[in-house]
Amino acid sequence: MKLYEMATTPSCRRVNIFLKLLGVEPERVTVDVRSGENLSSHYRNISANLKVPLLEIDDDTHLCESVAICRYVDAITPNQLYLFGRSPLEMAQVEMWQRMVELQGLMPAFQAFRNLSGVYRDRETCIELWGEESKKRVAAFLPVLEQQLAKHRYVAGSDLTIADISAFVFIKVCENALQLPVIGHYPNISAWLQELQQHDGFSA
Ligand SMILES: N[C@@H](CCC(=O)N[C@@H](CS)C(=O)NCC(=O)O)C(=O)O
Questions:
Q1: Which residue CA neighbors atom 18 of ligand 1 most closely?
Q2: Does pTM top 0.85 for this prediction?
Q3: What is the DSSP secondary structure assignment for residue 102, as one 8-state letter?
Q4: Which residue range is the domain that position 49 belongs to?
Q5: What is the CATH number of the domain that holds 15?
Q6: How do residues 116-142 score in pLDDT, each as one tens digit?
Q7: Each residue of 62-86: pLDDT tens digit?
Q8: Same domain for 94 and 184
Q9: Where does ligand 1 bind, in terms of residues with CB under 6 Å?
Q10: Based on the domain organization, do 116 and 143 belong to the same domain?
Q11: Substitution candidate for ligand 1 out of 3, 6, 8, 11 with most atoms within 8 A of CB
Q12: 3 phi and psi, to 5 degrees?
């Protein structure tokens, strides 16, 4: 397996934390997305969404979308971590929180960053107002996460799952890319972050 990535990006970090927890180490190829390497004709031939990460399974088979990559690696790696849940209810709860974090957290956070910073203005129209609105939506989601973590040890319940990995990366984007301070402002999120950082993969 070969992972096309730019390790510093949030989506690649998400997959890399997952791989680390499973102890999987693929071959890696760096794709410099800032300079547009992901828009090359070679990349267009192998990637359906023109983003990183991208997992090459063989010459003809490629997977994009972080969670799809994680699902595949999880399914082919014998493990008892149950990062997508175990019982039918747990699996549904993981899916529910994974989607909430993705749709109400990560997506608006990416939109805020892209539209306010203009880093990808060479390939998309940046709209400052949309960036500001997205940032407000991110800020509105933080109390939802805080409330969930007041009641549960982890985002989807009592066990560590993919929803925690997504939420961890989301919080890092808030703090580092959006200047939305979280640590110290949301006690339950802060305590959960501290606990996560004990696990291999989250600390690096
Ligand atoms: N939904 C995708 C998002 C991937 C994504 O947005 N990747 C960013 C880096 S975090 C990227 O490749 N950006 C380059 C671009 O948009 O041209 C996933 O989860 O994999």
A1: 65
A2: yes
A3: I
A4: 2-76
A5: 3.40.30.10
A6: 999 999 999 999 999 999 999 999 999
A7: 999 999 999 999 999 999 999 999 9
A8: yes
A9: 9-11, 33, 38, 51-53, 65-66, 110, 120, 123
A10: yes
A11: 11
A12: -105, 120
